[in-house]
Design a protein that fits this description.
heterodimer, A: alpha/beta, TIM Barrel, 8-stranded parallel beta barrel, two-stranded antiparallel sheet, 11 helices, B: alpha/beta, Rossmann fold, 5 helices, 8 strands, about 20% strand
């Protein structure tokens, strides 16, 4: 598959998207939490606003733990498909290890038809292990579950008739997985954590990658992306056929200090509720630096930083996380507005056709 | 302030004897401290399988959570075969990589031989540093001859354990101050 098969068009410049983990946390300042229904409605509304602001992509993640509401993320994406018309939609991420690839493909092919050819899958391995117990899988098979199922998912995408045998589901004999997506294939990305080790696997496999940056020094992540492209070459793939998407925390305000001050409580609480440890304040403060990947600051600073990252990483898509840790929806709306009116036009102007 | 002391031996009484003295000192002189002594010999702790600490159950979850919530840890460890025992290493393995950031950790060692003196310096301290702990430089090293029938019989050990408890608390206060200064300068 080449860049156009992944629905990436150079003429469109760097793609700008939003991703929600589908978290459902109390407001970090007030301690109050909206209902699960309200949170899901917010996510759909966020997608709609993103489309209206001219963004390229919107995705929702699958999580099966406390403080999350995206367990049935494909169902939420169905609602997003109905509420929007142009924006590309996807998962961030679909936990491939603990699902049947046939069912994943059926869901997302259907989503592709519902959305008129806008659906994508980002397949991940899960950063938490509770769902293995919940869904009846053995944590000891962590790595093999993902690799085997992800390979099958790719195979289903490539072939109308599938013959397959493996360890974690019944064999497929000349099986036809239906429906097919609108244009026969779906873009399927591999979700990759920060370290190079994980990016190398995506390169060896010959799949596009969505890499989690969140926050941290740019040169570290550049190494991972370089390693990804290098390993594509080792396997005789052409790196220019494979898009790279980066993801991270994003927050715009009038000035850097205000942005840091307003975002920090949500990121700190969000990390604490999701992983049991908060975000260290001094590391977070590095987010204001040009050499940290976090996009936190004034719109002008964010524009400069995005362009700098684009020059350094040569990625095709950036995904911003703006609704994490119980961030009030008004702030999410405000950020989408700033992206649409101030940031996106400048970033597009610079990156179009490159 | 929350302080958790761990008696890291699953067999034998020497480490527990030393840690019980630490608990007595803490409860007597610093009743305002929320203090907990965890005896690993009484806990059913599973081996780390790499999951997030919040996803364990039973004693494992109880112990990891208490440690994560503490401002300071006082780790009591025996030395077996010239090494910290697996029970103590497993506790570290159960926790996130930087679990001890902004925590003070102090060390009490019980050993059958003076030859084990450097084990904590060379094995335990590197682990604590990697996990970002603020480690109290002086450790209390206790030999078998310092104990008799679950009592400390060498007053020097009493003095040094008293100091360790006091210094641990002072360190927590001091590092709180340091951290405040660091963070106030940020945003």
């Amino acid at each position: 598959m080449a860049m156009e098969d992944y629905r990436i068009n150079k003429e469109n410049g760097l793609e700008f998207g939003l991703y929600s983990l589908g978290d459902h946390m109390p407001n970090a300042l007030t301690g109050k939490r909206v209902s699960a229904k309200e949170r899901i409605d917010q996510i759909v509304a966020e997608a709609k606003l993103a489309e209206e602001a001219g963004l390229d992509f919107f995705s929702v993640g699958e999580s099966h733990q406390k403080y999350f509401v995206g367990q049935a993320h494909a169902v939420i994406l169905g609602a997003v498909a109905q509420a929007t018309e142009k924006i590309k939609i996807g998962s961030s991420a679909t936990i491939v290890s603990t699902s049947d690839p046939v069912r994943i493909y059926e869901n997302f092919a259907t989503l592709d038809l519902l959305s008129n050819g806008r659906a994508e899958i980002i397949g991940g391995r899960a950063s938490r292990l509770g769902l293995f117990d919940l869904l009846g899988y053995n944590v000891n098979d962590y790595e093999e579950l993902f690799e085997e199922k992800f390979e099958l998912l790719l195979k289903i995408n490539e072939n109308h008739r599938v013959n397959w045998e493996g360890n974690f589901r019944a064999p497929l004999k000349d099986a036809e997985v239906l429906p097919r997506p609108l244009n026969d294939k779906l873009p399927i990305w591999r979700a990759v954590g920060g370290p190079a080790e994980s990016a190398i696997k995506a390169g060896l496999q010959g799949v596009p990658m969505t890499i989690t940056l969140l926050g941290g020094p740019l040169p570290i992540f550049k190494r991972s992306i370089d390693a990804y492209r290098q390993n594509l070459k080792i396997k005789s793939y052409n790196p220019s056929d494979f898009p790279v998407a980066t993801t991270g925390f994003f927050y715009a305000a009038d000035d850097t200090k205000t942005a840091l001050r307003e975002l920090y409580p949500y990121v700190d609480q969000g990390m604490k509720l999701a992983n049991g440890t908060g975000y260290h304040k001094r590391l977070f403060a590095n987010g204001a630096d040009m050499n940290d990947v976090m996009l936190v600051g004034s719109p002008q600073q964010i524009i400069e930083k995005m362009i700098y990252q684009y020059e350094e990483l040569g990625h095709q898509r950036y995904l911003a996380q703006i609704d994490f840790g119980g961030m009030p929806f008004e702030k999410v709306m405000k950020n989408i507005e700033i992206i649409g009116t101030k940031i996106l036009p400048e970033v597009k102007k610079y990156t179009k056709g490159k | 302030m929350k302080v958790v002391a761990i008696s890291g031996a699953v067999i034998g009484k020497k480490t527990l004897t030393a840690m019980k003295y630490v608990a007595e000192k803490m409860n007597k002189d610093f009743p305002e401290v929320e203090f907990d002594l965890i005896d690993l010999g009484e806990k059913d702790i599973q081996f780390s399988d790499g999951r997030n600490y919040t996803e364990y159950q039973g004693d494992t979850l109880e112990v990891t959570t208490k440690i994560m919530e503490a401002d300071a840890l006082i780790i009591g460890t025996p030395i077996f075969q010239a090494s910290i025992p697996g029970s103590v290493k497993n506790i570290f393995d159960l926790l996130p990589e930087k679990a001890l950031r902004d925590k003070v950790v102090s060390i009490v060692v019980t050993a059958g031989s003076a030859k084990h003196y450097l084990v904590a310096e060379m094995q335990l301290k590197p682990i604590l540093s990697y996990m970002k702990a603020q480690v109290l430089p002086e450790i209390v090293f206790i030999e078998g001859q310092d104990l008799f029938r679950q009592e400390i019989i060498n007053a020097d050990i009493n003095f040094r354990l008293d100091k360790l408890v006091e210094d641990t608390l002072i360190m927590v206060e001091t590092f709180k101050e340091l951290r405040k200064k660091q963070e106030d300068a940020l945003f």
